[in-house]
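Re-run with default settings, no changes from the original entry. Doing this only to confirm the output is reproducible before filing.
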Amino acid sequence: MKKLIEIQNISLSFGEKEVLKEVSLSIPEKKIVALIGPSGCGKSTLLRCLNRMHDLNSNVKIQGQILLDGVDILHTKTNVVEIRRNVGMVFQKPNPFPKSIFENIAYGLRINGTKDKETLHKAVEKSLKDSFLWDEVKDDLEKSGLQLSGGQQQRLCIARAIAVKPQVILMDEPCSALDPISTAKIEALLLNLKKDYTIVIVTHNMQQAQRVADYTAVMYLGEMVEYGETKQIFENAQNETARNYVNGVFG
């Protein structure tokens, strides 16, 4: 099984505050990996390392390596624009652009140089179909993305992320603002997308991790305390902290 991402001894500080401590894990290609752990344990911070989002904060110090297909994405000479094209991000709160449904998806394609109308239309349709949204919006593509329901907006953001064909999709608690029906649609969508994409998801919902993730990493106080196949983590965790967390001893 190909390891697409290799996280090697990543430590991260915001000023004097150490948030990640020598975290290492390998993420296989076309699998779903869940990062779980109590609030403040560093899981979202780790996720944001994977597409250089911490570059926007001059107070951050990162040590270690993150290899994406063998390329160290943290190296100063690595093209950040290329990294972010290759590693899409979906946030906790849906954040569609204040544009039409069509333009929400076409925007990234245009930035990447796609100008042909037919190519754009085909790509938008495919992204919406792959995001399980096409049947709901196909007659309304000029409607503002902001007029969709919360669950539809989140699927639109996923469609926008996959339109440029990244290798990896990062998701930071993508269902936390959604109702159970919308959450079920997103989960079904994730299971469908992993045939084409590697997905890393931060979730506070342990049942969700069990439903969708192939592998799960348990984080605690900035360290990764256990990582393995999801079934093994939830049924037979070897680390006491991981075992206590998944069994609800603390949260």
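The two ends are 33 Å apart (CA to CA). The longest helix spans residues 117-130.
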